[in-house]
Design brief:
Oligomer: single chain
Membrane topology: Multi-pass membrane protein
GO molecular function, one term: transmembrane transporter activity
Helix content: over 70%
Distance between the termini: 32 Å
InterPro entries: MFS (IPR011701), MFS_dom (IPR020846), MFS_trans_sf (IPR036259)
Structural class: mainly alpha
Number of helices: 16
Main location: membrane
Largest sheet: none
Pfam families: MFS_1
CATH topology: Growth Hormone, Chain: A
Radius of gyration: 20 Å
CATH superfamily: MFS general substrate transporter like domains
Length: about 400
């Protein structure tokens, strides 16, 4: 039996969470093994293997996250309109799995690589909002921080294992990137199977449900609470550079080889999976906004440390610890913050709207950082990024503080 956000009083302890949260977490764990296998090697493959400039990589990195903004909205709208969130999410997971084979077929063609990456992110765009909506609709509102924390922790286990699997495949296949892409497809297909077998859909409990119309997206934006969340998400997305840039900056400074490069993502994921659940619970206890803002303080500090006097292993440990903390305090917390502000019948559309604002801004961020690296150098570009985070932090505190 499914729980809406108001179906029962809050339970203390981790046992109060729905089995659907753990089923969705398992799907995300498996899928993240697949996606992080590719993510861990893709920056090095594009910049070192294919010789792309930082500016060109910035465009592809932006496409990787931001170019499917419209599909996020489409996925959210379809899930609410059809009341079949699982089916929409499953389509997204399947698209991402097929895209792994597209990377193999693309070879060294930048255009085909871009197309495969776009299909992969289209799948992510379709699945993310329905998945997060299923979590909010399967959990009492007072436990949303814990629910997203547990889900993101399981997601983090996959993110931790993915680069290790990629490292093992590279070692076994004589540094063959194609072998990584094939193995990634096989793992992603397993995630689709688990979704189909174990995740239960959430059908609306509202009587005489009216069909969701496109114009209701505008209705959502007329709500000041939702509008502030969308603006804040966009501001934060504009201030965030991609993981690949952070790892490339560390690789460039320390001269890491291909074999060791995936371990940077492992370090971030290890911190993330250890902290996501407890920090989600902390957000429920002391407030989600302070925890999220603390994460962006950690992000700005990580950016500044990359070109500080610190070097070697201490530099890697400090940057990756701060970067993992940033994800643990922000990734699920923003959705937990948004959930209670969105009506149930438009929950998925509202989440997609917030995520779309963040993804579109991220596209701009990646392109701008790539250009700044090219024309001003990596050190100046990174310091500008840290200043952008500080500005976004103040803006978000004002917007969401007023919302509260």
């Amino acid at each position: 039996m499914y729980l809406s956000t108001v179906e029962r009083p809050r339970k203390l302890g981790w046992k109060g969470l729905s089995g659907n949260v753990f089923a969705l977490g398992t799907v995300s764990l498996i899928t993240d093994v697949s996606s992080e296998m590719v993510t861990a090697v893709l920056p090095l493959y594009l910049v070192v293997g294919l010789g792309l400039s930082p500016a060109a990589y910035g465009v592809i990195d932006g496409v990787y996250t931001g170019a499917t903004t419209l599909l996020r909205l489409v996925g959210g709208y379809l899930a609410d309109k059809t009341d079949r969130r699982k089916a929409v999410a499953g389509t997204g997971y399947a698209l991402s799995a097929v895209a792994k084979l597209g990377l193999l077929i693309a070879g060294t063609s930048t255009a085909l690589l871009g197309a495969a990456i776009t299909i992969d992110r289209a799948g992510k765009g379709l699945r993310t909002a329905p998945r997060d909506a299923l979590i909010t609709l399967s959990t009492p509102s007072g436990d949303l921080g814990r629910a997203f924390g547990v889900h993101r922790a399981m997601d983090g286990v996959g993110a931790f294992l993915g680069p290790l699997v990629a490292l093992a495949v590279l070692a076994a296949a004589a540094d063959s990137f194609d072998a990584v892409f094939v193995a990634s497809f096989c793992v992603a297909a397993m995630g689709v199977v688990v979704l189909a077998m174990f995740v239960r859909d959430h059908r609306s409990t509202l009587p005489a449900r009216e069909p969701v119309r496109v114009k209701e997206i505008g209705t959502l934006l007329r709500d000041s609470r939702v509008r502030r969340l969308v603006i804040a998400a966009a501001v934060l997305g504009l201030a965030t550079i991609g993981d690949g840039f952070v790892y490339l900056l560390l690789q460039k400074r320390e001269g890491l080889t291909i074999g060791w490069f995936p371990l940077l993502a492992v370090g971030t994921s290890l911190v993330y999976l250890l902290l996501a659940a407890p920090l989600g619970a902390l957000a429920d206890k002391i407030g989600r906004l302070p925890v999220m803002l603390a994460g962006y303080v950690a992000l700005a500090t990580a950016y500044l440390l990359i070109h500080s006097p610190l070097d070697g292993i201490p530099l890697h440990l400090a940057v990756l610890a701060l970067y993992g903390t940033f994800y643990a305090t922000t990734d699920g917390v923003l959705m937990a913050l948004a959930g209670p502000a969105l009506p149930e019948r438009l929950r998925t559309t509202g989440i997609a709207l917030i995520q779309s604002g963040q993804a579109l801004a991220y596209l701009g961020s990646s392109v701008l950082f790539g250009l700044a690296w090219k024309y001003f150098g990596p050190e100046t570009a990174t310091r500008l990024a840290a200043a952008g985070v500080a500005t976004a932090l103040v803006t978000t505190a004002y917007l969401l503080g007023r919302r509260r």
